[in-house]
Amino acid sequence: MSDLKIPEDGVSGKLKAGVYILTGITLFAFVAFFVMLITKENGLKKQEKILIDPRVSELKKTGERLRQAGLFEQALDQYIKIWKLENSNSLARAEAASKAGKLYLKLGNCKEGLVWLFRAEAANPEKAAELQPLIDSCISKEK
Question: pTM value?
Answer without folding.
Answer: 0.61
